[in-house]
Amino acid sequence: MAEEELPGVLVLDIGGTHGVLENVAALLKKHFHLITMKEFIENKKEMSKKIQSVFVFECRPTIDQELLESLPNLKVIGNSGVGVDHLDLKMIANFGVKVTNTPHAVADPTADIGMALMLASARRLVEGNVLNFPGS
Asked: Boundaries of each D-isomer specific 2-hydroxyacid dehydrogenase catalytic domain copy (predicted)?
């Protein structure tokens, strides 16, 4: 399928400090034509019709009424994190747009860190490290 035939997905940026990670962008490119916020702002009239999805990565881009009004073909907002408390679900639903997220994406790593902290506390690893290596 040619890139122009793929549905458009709006992302804040690719790479950099706040952009979608390069490996995530490569995966998205298999299924979507990626449109950065800069490209969208520079050519709203043309780009707004192509965008059918917004990929929210680390709470960006901000989903507000102005953005939703400028995307007449928007069908879904995909959030790359667990929660959606940064999204106004009622407002988004009023535009007929669905919201998805990844509820179990960090369940195992969170459990691993919780266990590590409990073991470190029970075994006093932090105190032991300071006693064995003063000044660290």
From this structure: 21-113
The helix (run of H) or strand (run of E) holding residue 36 is strand 33-36
What are the residue boundaries of the structural domains of the chain, listed by start?
8-126
Report the mean per-residue pLDDT for the chain.
90
Instruction: Determine the average pLDDT of the residues in 23-30.
Output: 94
**CATH topology (fold) of 8-126:** Rossmann fold (3.40.50)
Classify burial at 113, counting beta carbons within 10 Å of its beta carbon; exposed 0-12, middle 13-18, buried 19 or more.
Answer: exposed
**C-alpha pair distances (Å), 6 with each of 24, 78, 88, 135:** 17, 16, 27, 57
3-state class of 55 per DSSP? Answer: strand
Phi, psi of 114 (to 5 degrees): -60, -45
16 dihedral zone (left: phi>0; alpha: psi -120 to 50; beta)? left
- Model confidence pLDDT, tens digit, residues 63-98: 999 999 999 999 999 998 878 999 999 999 999 999
- How far CA 43 is from CA of 48, 50, 77, 95, 105, in Å, comes to 8, 11, 21, 22, 34
Tens-digit pLDDT profile for residues 42-51: 999 999 999 9
